[in-house]
Amino acid sequence: MPLPNLIEIVPLEKPVRAEITVPGSKSITNRALVLAALSEGETTLRGALWSEDTQVMADCLQKLGFAVKVEPDPDEICNRTITAQGTGGKISNGGTLENPLELFVGNAGTAARFLSALVCLGQGIYRLKGVKRMHERPQEALFDALRELGYCLDSVNNKLPVLVHGSGPKPGATCVVSIGESSQFASALMLCAKVGGWHVNVVGENAEESPYVAMTMQLIEKFPTRGGEFAVEPDASSGSYFWAAGVVMNGFNRVESRLDLPVKVSKWPDFELQIDSEFPMRMPVFGVQSPSSFSRLHDLADSIMTAIVVAPFYDHAIKFVDLGRLRLQETERVHALRNELTKCGAKVVEEGDTLTVYPSKLHGAEIETYNDHRVAMCFAILGLKVPGIKIKNPACVKKTFPNFFQKLAAAPPRGLGATILDATTGRKLEARELFAD
User: Fold this and answer.
1) Which residue among 73, 302, 322, 372 is the active-site one?
2) CATH class held by domain 26-231
């Protein structure tokens, strides 16, 4: 049964002790799928995320002619074991100018950017398109870099939809790409650079320190290029909601380490690939002094949204800076966070790309999610503490975490034991109704 269009999270009466598993990393899964397709052997990805974003990537690779086999994961319902047969850079399928090969990328930025570079290595014409929001998101810096490498891309406004004329590798070709708007532009080029024979120079905001560019570089170094196995880490951004739940329920009482929090995330990754693996250590429960600011560039990635939503519980104002990239993602996230927190009674001041959140007494509200999975999940955690939080369009979590609400409702220690209601009828929802499909 589908999730209702409006649900209500009932606050927990007391802290629970739980250790939650979360699905695999979207960022790692979609990078690994591209690397597996470009390898020279059969690669098995274990713990790979299976959600809207990764499904569109797998579907597109299959349309391009890659053999991709998907099997269940016994440990996590939203993971899969994916086996991909690499072809050493050859792309067997391609369309013509009259009948391009159509690739639908939904609202997956990784799929849109990575596939734009990948199909340049083919021999044919490819049209990439997505949902309306994906057609609004930036692509120009990537398209310009691919043109500089010698490829032809036709786009009315340098956004999707785009017609890519694949013409194979171009050994020795050089380009410069800016990551001022998205590090995915550089990652797309880097993933394909070896097969394409490209030299990619990355410039722009913190080009050398961008955590997602660093993730791509490390994955390229570690990935089995002639086949083998690769384990995908749990998604640290998705894990942030449960660490935050533990902190909120713990009343922000200081503890010596994250292991002392009542809610933990199992198999938590080390900070090597995912910057958001730092999230539990940056919450204001450790050390002597709570942080007074967080940076989207230097401290946290998508999990900074989680920190913003729980910030009204702090005992002092917190500044969240360098938020510009949040404006260019699934929705205008800076606006969304300010708007929905204000609905709940929070004092939030927006100045440029900074949000300052003040200690506030919160109340219930109907949360507009803007079809953004992370907005839905952040405010659901708020509902564990604040009565009357209702989430519109909760099924949008299918983008990265389809069983998120099942995790909230599952009995401890595998879940938080939360009660979730159909907000229209007041009926308690059963587990089978909480999966976002």
Assistant:
1) 302
2) alpha beta
